[in-house]
Automatic annotation (TrEMBL):
Keywords for the protein's UniProt record, in alphabetical order: Membrane, Transmembrane, Transmembrane helix
Transmembrane feature ranges: 53-69, 81-104, 124-145, 151-174
Top-level taxon of origin: Archaea
Protein name per Swiss-Prot or TrEMBL: DUF2391 family protein
Length: 177
């Protein structure tokens, strides 16, 4: 729990607007309240269904909405588009973060259920897929990316995808379903 609270503190330092700071504070408080509920933490999580996908979607939106309105997302996207190695590293790092949150950090006991092709966990695909698709659709719908330069658009979506995948992973496993 201390690591999670420390992560919220770091996140609070990175946001600029009072509204974003309030959202981070509210999320931190919700985590503290949830930690007091023994039924949330320590459950065995197995299977993967539409409820899990909805939780991942909600978590990605919670972390993503500030990214949609923040101009820094486009600046990072421009940098990533100009540096393909960084873009690749960001995607790989994001996948690693999601794996770490879901399967390594021991926030919950998450079991792999019927992996795709016998190897790829459904939960990981759901978390990463929902957060990337949400970033893609929302960034396009809100006019944050233009597709005249596809590499720049994808790089900007990837910049939003990083925190959204963290939110999706946490949103999926913290309710404990």
């Amino acid at each position: 729990m201390q690591r999670l609270l420390a992560e919220f503190d770091v996140l609070a330092e990175t946001v600029d607007s009072p509204e974003e700071k309030e959202r981070v504070r509210a999320a931190r408080n919700a985590a503290v309240l949830a930690a007091d509920d023994d039924e949330i933490f320590g459950q065995v999580i197995q299977g993967y269904d539409r409820a899990d996908l909805a939780e991942a979607f909600l978590g990605s939106l919670l972390f993503g909405i500030p990214m949609f309105v923040e101009g820094g997302t486009n600046e990072v996207g421009s940098f990533l588009a100009a540096n393909p190695l960084s873009l690749f590293g960001t995607v790989v790092g994001t996948i690693g973060l999601a794996i770490g949150i879901l399967y390594v950090a021991d926030i919950q006991d998450v079991r792999v259920y019927k992996p795709i092709l016998g190897v790829v966990p459904r939960r990981l695909v759901g978390v990463l897929g929902s957060s990337f698709l949400t970033a893609l659709v929302m960034m396009t719908a809100w006019g944050r990316v233009g597709w005249s330069d596809p590499l720049l658009a994808v790089a900007t979506v990837v910049a939003a995808f990083v925190p959204m995948s963290i939110g999706a992973a946490l949103g999926d496993i913290l309710p404990g379903s």
